[in-house]
Design goal:
It is a multi-pass membrane protein. The protein is mostly helical. The chain has helices at about 5-10, 20, 25-30, 50-70, 70-75, 85, 90-100, 125-135, 145-170, 180-185, 185-190, 200-215, 215-230, 240-250, 250-275, 275-280, 280-290, 295-305, 310-335, 340-355, 365-375, 380-405, 415-440, 480-485. Helices cover about 60% and strands about 0% of the residues.
C-alpha cells in the first residue's frame, strides 16, 4: 500500500492536461472553448471533477450506441435476417434470450437446451449475469416484447459496467484522469457495447487494474479471478505481471495476486463444476471445437485458398503463434532499457491473443480499449486504430448482409477480407507504437514528467533485480539517462504542465 506521504505527494501535483501536451487533444478542445488554462486543475476537487465528467461522457456515448440500435429494437431483429445487418444494429442479446432457453425459464448449465448447442456456451459469471437479467425482465405479452425488454434490461446493466470502466480508468493513472476520455469517446465502444456481455469482464478487469495501481494486490487477484470467470482473456494479464515482478523481485506480491485470482475463480466455478459438470465444461469444449470464424486472418486464408482448415490444426497453429508472441513480450520485458509499464504489457498480450485467435467478434475491441488508453494515451494513434475498428464493424455486417440476402446486396468476401486486414493492421500499428515506447522510454508520454509506472502499484519506482541483455550493464555515461528525468514532486515550478 502507498504511504500517506506518497499519497499526499500525488495529490499535491496538478493533473496532467492532454490539451497542453497532445496536439490532437488541443485541436479537439476548440469545440468546447480551447485547451485548459494554467489554473484549471485547481477546480478538479469540485463536484464536476474529471472523473465525474468522464463518467457522464461515457454514459452519454453509451446512450448514443443504444440509439444506433433502435432500428433493430423496433423491428429489424424480428423481421428477417438481413435487415439487422444492413442497419448495422445486430445484437446477440435478444436472439439468445430465445435461443438459450431464458424465455422458457431454463437454468443455465443445469438444463439441457434443444438443438445442437446442448448447454449455454458462456463462462459461469456471464451466465449468472444473463440469468439475473432474465429475472429482471418482467415484460409480458408477445415474444417480441419480451426480447425487447430483455435487451433493455441488459443494456441498463451494461451501462453500469460502462460507468465503472470509465471511473476505474480515470483513477488508475495518478494525475492522468483525462486519459480516460479515450475510453469514454471511443466510437467502437459505443457501437459494440450492447452486442454481447463482454463489458462485465471488461469492468472487472478495469477495477482490477485500479486495485493494482493502488497497491491492493489481493483485491487485484480476486477481481482478475472474477473477470476470468466472466471471460477468458483477463487471466492473460497474470503473464505480464509475472515478468514484471520477476524483473523487480516482487515474488510475494505476484504469488498473492495469483492465489487470489485462482481462489476467486474457484469460488465462482466450483459449485457449477460439481453440480453440473457437463454444462460447466461447454464453454471450454465449444472454444476448442469452434471452426475458423469471422474476423480472423485464418478466415482470409481459408477464403483465399478455398480449402477448409482442420480445427485441430488451427488450434495448434494459433497456440504456437500466441506462445511465440508471449516469448517476444517476455524478451522485451526483461531486456528493455527501463522496466515496461504494466498497462503496456497488458495491452500487448491481449492484442496478441486477439490477432492470433481463430475468431474476432466485433465486440472484442472492448477488451482492448481501456488497456489502450492506459498503454498509449495519445489521440492520434488511438483514433487511427479506432477508425480501423469502425471500418471492421461496418464490414462484418455488410458481409453478413451479402451472405444472407437473396440478392447478395452487401460486401462480398473480397471486401470483407479488406475489412479484416484493416482491423489487423490497426491493432498491429498500435502494438508497434507501444513497443517503440518500451524500447525508447523517453518517447513514452506517461513518463515525460519523471513518472515510472503510475498504474504499477508496488512496481512503481521499484529497483530491478533481474535484467537481460544490454539493460543489465548500461554504459556508465548512460546510467542516469536510462532512469529518465526526475522531477521533485513538491516543486510546482518544475511541473511541465505549468
Amino acid at each position: 500500500m502507498p504511504s500517506a506521504k506518497e499519497t499526499s505527494v500525488y495529490q499535491d501535483r496538478p493533473d496532467v492536461r492532454p490539451t497542453r501536451q497532445d496536439p490532437i487533444a488541443a485541436s479537439g478542445s476548440e469545440l468546447i472553448g480551447g485547451p485548459a488554462g494554467r489554473f484549471a486543475w485547481r477546480g478538479s476537487s469540485g463536484w464536476l471533477n474529471p472523473v465525474r465528467v468522464i463518467a457522464l461522457v461515457a454514459i452519454g456515448m453509451f446512450a448514443l450506441g443504444m440509439v444506433q440500435k433502435m432500428p433493430c429494437y423496433n423491428w429489424a431483429w424480428f423481421r428477417g435476417t438481413s435487415s439487422q445487418y444492413t442497419h448495422a444494429c445486430y445484437s446477440d442479446i435478444p436472439h439468445l434470450y430465445l435461443g438459450r432457453g431464458f424465455s422458457e425459464g431454463l437454468i443455465p448449465y443445469f438444463d439441457r437446451l434443444p438443438g445442437d448447442m446442448e448447454y449455454l456456451e458462456y463462462p459461469v459469471l456471464t451466465g449468472l449475469f444473463m440469468q439475473v437479467a432474465s429475472w429482471l425482465d418482467l415484460a409480458g405479452g408477445s415474444m417480441q416484447n419480451q426480447e425487447q425488454m430483455y435487451w433493455m434490461v441488459n443494456a441498463g446493466l451494461l451501462m453500469i459496467c460502462t460507468a465503472i470502466i470509465a471511473v476505474c480508468v480515470a483513477r488508475t493513472h495518478r494525475r492522468r484522469p483525462w486519459d480516460a476520455l479515450l475510453v469514454a469517446l471511443a466510437p467502437a465502444f459505443a457501437l459494440t457495447a450492447t452486442i454481447n456481455w463482454d463489458l462485465l469482464a471488461v469492468a472487472l478487469t478495469a477495477a482490477a487494474m485500479l486495485m493494482w495501481s493502488r497497491g491492493r494486490v489481493l483485491a487485484f487477484g480476486i477481481l482478475i479471478g472474477l473477470a476470468t470467470a466472466a471471460k477468458l482473456y483477463p487471466v492473460l494479464l497474470l503473464g505480464p505481471l509475472l515478468l514484471l515482478c520477476w524483473r523487480a523481485g516482487k515474488w510475494r506480491e505476484f504469488a498473492t495476486a495469483a492465489l487470489g485470482a485462482a481462489g476467486a475463480w474457484l469460488v465462482v466455478n466450483l459449485p457449477v463444476m460439481l453440480l453440473a459438470p457437463e454444462g460447466w465444461k461447454k464453454f471450454y469444449t465449444f472454444s476448442q471445437e469452434r471452426q475458423v470464424d469471422f474476423g480472423s486472418f485464418w478466415l482470409i486464408i481459408t477464403q483465399r485458398t478455398g480449402e477448409p482448415m482442420e480445427v485441430e490444426s488451427v488450434n495448434t497453429y494459433a497456440t504456437l503463434l500466441m506462445l511465440l508472441a508471449c516469448a517476444g513480450i517476455a524478451a522485451l520485458t526483461l531486456s528493455a532499457p527501463r522496466r515496461p509499464r504494466f498497462a503496456q504489457l497488458a495491452f500487448l498480450v491481449v492484442a496478441a491473443f486477439i490477432v492470433t485467435n481463430k475468431v474476432y467478434s466485433p465486440q472484442y475491441v472492448l477488451w482492448l480499449i481501456p488497456l489502450a488508453a492506459l498503454a498509449r494515451p495519445r489521440w492520434r494513434d488511438f483514433l487511427i486504430w479506432q477508425a480501423c475498428e469502425v471500418m471492421y464493424f461496418l464490414g462484418i455486417w455488410m458481409y453478413l448482409a451479402y451472405t444472407t440476402s437473396p440478392k447478395h446486396q452487401g460486401l462480398p468476401p473480397e471486401g470483407y477480407q479488406v475489412a479484416i486486414a484493416l482491423h489487423l493492421l490497426g491493432t498491429l500499428y498500435l502494438c508497434a507504437v507501444v513497443v517503440r515506447d518500451i524500447l525508447m522510454p523517453e518517447r513514452d508520454g506517461v513518463r515525460k514528467d519523471g513518472s515510472d509506472d503510475p498504474s504499477g502499484g508496488v512496481l512503481d519506482g521499484a529497483d530491478d533485480v533481474f535484467v537481460l541483455g544490454q539493460a543489465a550493464h548500461p554504459p556508465r555515461h548512460a546510467a542516469h539517462a536510462l532512469e529518465g528525468p526526475r522531477v521533485e514532486w513538491g516543486t510546482r515550478s518544475q511541473d511541465p504542465g505549468n
